[in-house]
Amino acid sequence: MKEKQVKVQRKPNGKKNTGGVQVEVGQRVVLTIKRLGINGEGIGYYRRKITFIAGVLPGEKIQAEITKVHPKYLQAQVIKILSKSPDRVKPRDKYDVGGIELEHLCYDKQLEYKRDVILQALEKFKPRGYQNYDLRPTLGMENPYAYRNKAQFQVRRAKDGHLMAGLYRSNSHFLVDLPTFSTQKPLTMKIMRTVLKLLEKWQISAYNEKTNRGDVKTIVVRESQAKKEAQVVLITRSQRVNNLSAFVGDLQVALPEVVSIMQNINPEKTSLIWGAETLRLAGSEYLEETLGDVHFRLSARAFFQLNPSQTEVLYDQVKLALDLQADESLVDAYCGVGTIGLYVSKEAREVRGMDITPEAIVDARYNAQISGRTNVTYEVGPAEEWLPKWSREGFHPDALVVDPPRLGLDDKLIATILANPPKKFVYVSCNPSTLARDLVKLSQVYEVEYIQSVDMFPQTARCEAVVKFRRRKK
């Protein structure tokens, strides 16, 4: 979204007058941090103007330098922490990249923060009865490190000629090489660095964004927690890559735990990671994973939760909230490869799911087959089309579970739910802001019994939540 252009009165000394506050980029100020925002950034006030500063904690007094001046707020970077919070800890990682924005905050306070983020969103959107919602303490991990089973790192050539693989610096397009990363599973990092060395050995080039030349854009490594096996995907600019077969042979010898080597072709000059075509270079096309007693086949592009052990915690909370009985039916909207529906299917008479991605439905049907689930049905298409169709055919689900992307529920689906509200309804959210927004409409028909937050991504500002609804009494 383009930033709205706002005329700002300039004073003779070059300062901007923003709502009565004179301030300029580069100006140094002293602030006290009041709270953390939804992205984990510290929030303070300079002459009553809200100011956002990354890497600081509530209660800390800091010296900061103004980096951006907006009509309604300021952005700054910390220069010096004048008084530290007792909740500050030494982070394991020293990189300025996303995915570790709360690593300087002790873990028990991270869990409190994630509950508070939901409260902040509710206070902003004010759904019906939000003041009385039961916001339960966040469920965290015993060891909040080494949990990510997938690494998706960009590849570029450094000034010294060596290849780099990593993530972009915060709010920039500068690639930071990541030889280590504490939230990743060790095997994924071992494989990532080995792949990088072998690309250099065989002189396979890195993609250059400026010239739109070079071969490898991105390396994707995914580990199966159940089998301790892995899949490697090279995302390349074109199908033809010199010495690719030699690279694959060496990789198989060096890392026998890599059971699937794939190539995805993305010829476009775009910010999108994946292209439309994926080829098998060696081994299987799929990786196998297990959650509870449910087995999953994961293709290269299949979505699967990045924290398998905590996914079971999340899905156990979904199962508890649904409280399905043997004679009840469930619809799993946004079903993906069938994770939630299959996980709870033993409790129900019937489960039906749908997703707009055909490949996901192919995987969901196969996953049901290899898990021995015979009471599940999966269809391609949006829930707002399938639910009315099934209703016309006489199928009225007892329960509904939704697990939408960060954008939240589709407006048409909300209207469909409100027109024929199931008796039981559970919303799994990965974005407190869109959850609170959706609750404004859903609370017309449903009451929120409770919201259970789950920490799927320790050291980050992201938060998942399970919402249990009950229908309002007429």
What does this 3D model show about the protein?
With 474 residues, the protein is an alpha/beta fold. 23% of the residues lie in helices and 32% in strands. The chain contains nine helices and 26 strands. It has helices spanning 107-125, 186-201, 244-254, 308-322, 339-344, 358-370, 383-392, 411-419, 432-442, and strands spanning 9-10, 16-18, 21-23, 28-32, 35-36, 42-46, 49-53, 61-69, 74-83, 135-139, 150-157, 163-168, 175-177, 216-224, 229-236, 258-265, 277-283, 287-291, 294-298, 329-333, 350-355, 376-380, 399-402, 424-429, 446-454, 464-471. The strands form five sheets. An eight-stranded mixed β-sheet has the order 10-25-26-24-23-20-21-22, sandwiched between helices. Strands 13-12-11-14-15-16-17 form a seven-stranded mixed β-sheet, with helices on one face. A hairpin with a 2-residue loop joins strand 6 (42-46) and strand 7 (49-53).
Task: Note the overall shape.
Answer: globular
Query: Rounded to an integer, what's the Rg over CA atoms?
Result: 24 Å
Question: How is the quaternary structure best described?
Answer: single chain
Unreliable parts: 1-14
| Main structural class | alpha/beta
Rounded mean pLDDT score: 93
Number of helices: 9
Helix content: 10-25%
Kindly report how far apart the N and C termini lie. 42 Å
Largest sheet: 8 strands, mixed
Q: Order of strands across the widest beta sheet?
A: 10-25-26-24-23-20-21-22
Percentage of β-strand residues? 25-35%
Count of DSSP strands: 26
